[in-house]
């Protein structure tokens, strides 16, 4: 039914507002309808706090008895967690029908929530808008099912396709508005990764600045196979602000340089890889074990190509500036894979931000703008 899909779409839009505050839980939205009227709506707002369904029930302007609940995710039914289960709440509230977007991939739920509702005599229609509802929680599925973070690559390039100045010298390519957008994205991620070229060339801090931090912890990660990172760099001298983690080859992890970095509080981890390249898959597995659900990679062209060829990119944000660098030896941006699906374009001052999703990712379900992109464009309800 068209109306079912429209109400679920509204629940998706609501859910997106939890982005940055609910992880590692999924984004979930709920709309309650009675006599073709929306009488309540809510979303999961904060990790550890009330889920979408009780929030929607609490907001009802009429008795929900006999009404329909539209939920983007199967209502939970498990105990021994932070909040009481939602399916029994919907049963108690006397709803006649529950429309579910997609099943909860959490093995503690996965079909049991829907079964509990049915056993109480509630009509359950599921799945509806399944791909859209799965895309909404693609990062949760990556984390829960594929045991890795959701990977976003982001870079800025000039009108002539350059990512730095002559000889790789750092140049501010994006303007103020896109700078802010990037820092808002950083504030919602659990880890920010760069390669050694960027670490040595730019001496970055990698922190979100002039924005409210939404995540409890931000890991700053450097891939540096030969461990060239200097103990005097800013990432090493600011570990009291945010932890810094460096992945390098196993022999480099035993070097003097490694000892000096560790002495400053930097964590140095030796990891496998051939040809001087570190293997990205095992690194992502280690980041998952450290609870990184959203990983933002701010790569130079080499690291970007490494990620593309390993097939481990879920989303790509590119910022296109009208600035022309016009230096023949300035590094050129990695080519954007042709099959990536463009989901959104927005002007940020004079720059254009493009969002693309990798259709070959195991967590690609629908060509749909991400919550980060929608929040940036101010399209939320
Ligand atoms: C729902 N509605 O809004 C969300 C659900 O520790 P808790 O109590 O917050 O439970 C987290 C789990 O509940 C999470 O892993 C996922 O399976 C489910 N999330 N379920 O019915 C919601 N956020
Ligand atoms: Zn719940």
- Spans with pLDDT under 50 lasting ≥5 residues? none
- Average pLDDT, rounded to a whole number, is 95
Q: Can you list the strand order of the major beta sheet?
A: 10-9-8-7-11-6-12-14-13
Gap from first CA to last CA:
22 Å
Quick one: overall form?
elongated
CATH level-four homologous superfamily name of the largest domain = Dihydrofolate Reductase, subunit A
Order of helices and strands: HEEHEHEHEHHEHEHEHEHEHEHEEEH
**Strand pairing plus helix content: what structural class?**
alpha/beta
Q: Give the percentage of residues in beta strands.
A: 15-25%
What is the fold's blueprint, element by element?
Elements lengths: L1 H14 L13 E6 L2 E7 L8 H7 L9 E6 L13 H6 L4 E6 L9 H8 L3 E3 L4 H7 L1 H7 L5 E8 L18 H12 L3 E5 H7 L16 E5 L10 H4 L6 E5 L7 H8 L3 E4 L9 H10 L4 E4 L3 H10 L4 E6 L20 E8 L2 E7 L13 H7 L4
Bound molecules: ligand AOF and zinc ion.
Describe the structure.
It is a single chain. By secondary structure, the chain is an alpha/beta fold. The protein folds into two domains: 135 residues, Cytidine Deaminase, domain 2 (3-Layer(aba) Sandwich), CATH 3.40.140; 229 residues, 3-Layer(aba) Sandwich (Dihydrofolate Reductase, subunit A). Helices cover 28% and strands 21% of the residues. The protein contains 13 helices and 14 strands. Strands 10-9-8-7-11-6-12-14-13 form a nine-stranded mixed sheet. Strands 2-1-3-4-5 form a five-stranded mixed sheet, sandwiched between helices. Strand 8, helix 9 and strand 9 form a beta-alpha-beta unit. The mean pLDDT is 95. The site of ligand AOF has 17 residues, from helix 2.
């Amino acid at each position: 039914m068209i109306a079912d899909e429209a109400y679920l779409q509204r629940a998706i839009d609501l859910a997106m507002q939890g982005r940055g505050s609910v992880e590692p839980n999924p984004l979930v939205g709920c709309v309650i309808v009675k006599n073709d009227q929306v009488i309540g709506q809510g979303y999961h707002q904060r990790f550890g706090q009330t889920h979408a369904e009780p929030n929607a029930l609490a907001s009802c302007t009429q008795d929900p008895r006999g009404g329909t609940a539209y939920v983007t995710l199967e209502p939970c039914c498990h105990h021994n967690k932070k909040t009481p289960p939602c399916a029994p709440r919907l049963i108690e509230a006397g709803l006649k029908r529950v429309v579910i977007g997609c099943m909860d991939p959490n093995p503690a739920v996965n079909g049991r929530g829907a079964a509990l509702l049915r056993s109480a005599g509630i009509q359950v229609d599921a799945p509806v808008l399944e791909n859209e509802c799965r895309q909404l929680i693609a990062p949760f599925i990556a984390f829960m099912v594929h045991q890795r973070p959701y990977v976003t690559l982001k870079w800025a390039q000039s009108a002539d396709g350059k990512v730095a100045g002559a000889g790789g010298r750092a140049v501010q390519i994006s303007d103020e508005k896109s700078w802010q957008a990037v820092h808002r994205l950083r504030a919602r991620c659990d880890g920010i990764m760069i390669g050694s070229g960027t670490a040595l060339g730019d001496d970055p801090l990698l922190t979100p600045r002039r924005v409210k931090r939404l995540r409890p912890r931000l890991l700053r990660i450097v891939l540096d196979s030969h461990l060239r990172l200097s103990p005097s760099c800013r990432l090493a001298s600011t570990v009291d602000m945010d932890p810094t983690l460096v992945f390098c080859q196993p022999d480099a992890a035993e070097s003097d340089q490694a000892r000096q970095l560790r002495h400053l509080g930097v964590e140095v981890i030796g990891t496998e890889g051939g040809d001087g390249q570190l293997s990205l898959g095992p690194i992502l597995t280690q980041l998952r074990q450290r609870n990184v659900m959203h990983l933002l990679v701010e790569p130079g062209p080499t690291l970007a190509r490494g990620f593309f060829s390993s097939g481990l990119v879920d989303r790509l944000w590119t910022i296109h500036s009208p600035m022309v660098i016009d230096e023949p030896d300035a590094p050129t941006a990695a080519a954007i894979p042709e099959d990536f699906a463009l989901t959104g374009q927005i002007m940020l001052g004079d720059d254009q931000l493009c969002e693309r999703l990798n259709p070959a990712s195991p967590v690609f379900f629908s060509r749909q703008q991400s919550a980060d992109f929608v929040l940036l464009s101010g399209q939320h309800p």
